[in-house]
Design a protein that fits this description.
Order of helices and strands: HEEHEEHHEEEEH
Number of strands: 8
Distance between the termini: 42 Å
Number of helices: 5
CATH topology of the largest domain: Immunoglobulin-like
Strand order of the largest sheet: 2-3-6
Oligomer: single chain
Shape: elongated
Length: 212
């Protein structure tokens, strides 16, 4: 009889536990806070330096082109009124500012002349020895010219500005140039990911609250 009573008590305790604990859990209200780093995206403004846009409309030298204005008409661009056609050797570079701002464009040039007889002997050579270069007796002319051009304006570089008188025993041998455009600061945007610490909330159970 005693064992039966004990068994009945255990069953009752289990039943009460099964009913009472969920009820307590249901009535239990507790919220905990915690911090966590969260990524987020923002639009960032930054500035970048870029060269001005331009195009080289034409390039030639007066030894090859005798009528500069006729060439310009044929190729579809307008020369400035003050352009000078040098009777001596000169390089011409026609440049147009394609950007929406005014800018300065610098051209750096090097012109080389050579002994006429040696140049004629070597005219078919693709490579030369140091002795052959020495035979050419090269002379160098170098300089730079700056032109300030408005948006869409066309400018003509004459290199050198006064031309070069080439003596009868010499010929133009080689020339190099490079154009350095002005720069401008451009405002741009980009999307960047950053992190910020945010407060989060979570509900916890009675068991977690008591034994966590």
């Amino acid at each position: 009889m005693k064992k039966t009573g004990t068994a009945v008590g255990v069953v009752i305790a289990l039943v009460l536990g099964a009913v009472f604990v969920p009820l307590v859990e249901a009535e239990f209200r507790h919220t905990e806070t915690y911090l966590e780093d969260e990524p987020y995206e923002v639009t960032e403004t930054y500035y970048e330096t870029e060269p001005l846009e331009y195009r080289r409309l034409d390039s030639f030298h007066t030894e090859a082109v005798k009528d500069v204005r006729r060439r310009a008409d044929f190729r579809g661009y307008d020369l400035p009124h003050e352009i000078v056609e040098w009777p001596d050797f000169a390089l011409y570079f026609v440049v147009q500012n394609l950007d929406d701002v005014v800018g300065t464009f610098e051209i750096r040039y090097t012109i080389t002349t050579a002994n006429k007889e040696a140049a004629e002997r070597q005219m078919h050579l693709s490579q030369r020895t140091p002795e052959e270069y020495e035979e050419l007796e090269r002379e160098y002319y170098a300089g730079s010219i700056e032109l300030q051009l408005e948006s869409s304006q066309i400018g003509v570089y004459i290199c050198p500005p006064g031309g070069i008188y080439i003596a009868p025993d010499r010929v133009p041998f080689d020339h190099e140039h490079d154009i350095a455009p002005d720069t401008k600061e451009v405002e741009k945007e980009r999307t960047v990911t950053r992190e910020r610490t945010e407060t989060h909330y979570k509900r916890i159970t009675l068991f977690e609250y008591l034994f966590g």
